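Database export, one record per block. Field names are fixed; values are copied verbatim from the stored entry.
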Amino acid sequence: MADVPYKIVNGVNVELTADEISVLETARAAADADISQMRPARDGCLAGTDKTQLADYPLGDHTAAEWATYRQELRDLMATPDMTNSNAVWPKSPIIIAAGQAAYDAEVAKDGSGPAAGEAARTAAEGSAGYPGHGMA
């Protein structure tokens, strides 16, 4: 059974009309297609990782090439054809990827855990694909 959209009129739930549902769906589609808020988030991720491209910046366990790849993926994100807010796939930074791998390895190392459990742990550690975070302070 499909969800029936309602509105509240004088404290009573009233089913939306076909015209109201159409207007609502049009507004949702327009909001989903408006990616103008994605560019500032993407730009913030790029700005937050600028330091990774400095020759003397301590990168820890990650290489400048890994960060350069991540930054290029961020730049390419805005050029994805037919991208909307709901289908955008943000790239994962080297820090997020490493956290996911560590969670995968730890789960698979447990007695009786297999790759499926490892993938679930990786997904949980990496977080939502829609999150525009790079894991750097």
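Remark 1: The longest strand covers residues 6-9.
Remark 2: The chain has five helices and two strands.
End of record.
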